[in-house]
Amino acid sequence: MRADLEDAMHDISHIQQFLPCPTPQSWIDWALRHPDILLIDHAHCEKKAASTALNLMFRYVDRPDLLDALSQLAREELLHFEQVIQIMRERGVTYDHLSPARYAQGLRKHVRTTEPGRLVDTLIVGALIEARSCERFAALAPHVDEELGRYYRYLLKSESRHYEDYLRLAEQYAGESIEERVAFFKSAEQDLIETPDEEFRFHSGVPRQ
């Protein structure tokens, strides 16, 4: 198991380098105190990720590369949703409504409103969300029970590919360097990750003291 974990961590080293900061230990401690909310919000995140991909497919029907990549991504996210729901049922955790984290909206509020900036920024935000999800699964895996840790490690490969797909598409459709926009969103993302939150969520910041 230790070898598997080390392999998985190695596989996402490029994501850890891409993100502006690691997940704080205080968030990991918070997650371990709220295992039911962790699972429920994880399920919501998978469903939202599929919805985001489908919305982009409806909006940008003239982008064949986007349609191909996001069609596969949406299918995988829905499969993950089904898998998390099954884990919850086995553990007696009821799937229910949760208020959303500020995280995604905190990134999306900076998306430009005219094209192609709107598409490029949306794809950059998608890349950051997928990268952070992957990094958090890896951060949690050593601390949760064996079954859940194995499942989180299983998710790393697909989450890593989703990040790469979003970033590749952003670069493809920008027509220019996206380095400045990526740096801007990284700064916003770091603030959301490192500042206090009132409620625990999969993408929340640190607990308010």
From TrEMBL:
Annotated PANTHER family: TRNA 2-(METHYLSULFANYL)-N(6)-ISOPENTENYLADENOSINE(37) HYDROXYLASE (PTHR42637:SF1), TRNA-(MS[2]IO[6]A)-HYDROXYLASE (PTHR42637)
GO biological process: tRNA modification
Organism placement in taxonomy: Bacteria, Pseudomonadati, Pseudomonadota, Gammaproteobacteria, Oceanospirillales
Protein name: tRNA-(Ms(2)io(6)a)-hydroxylase
Any one Gene Ontology molecular-function term assigned to this protein's record: tRNA 2-(methylsulfanyl)-N(6)-isopentenyladenosine(37) hydroxylase activity
Signal peptide extent: none
InterPro entries (alphabetical): Ferritin-like, Ferritin-like_SF, tRNA-Hydrxlase_MiaE
SUPFAM superfamilies linked: Ferritin-like
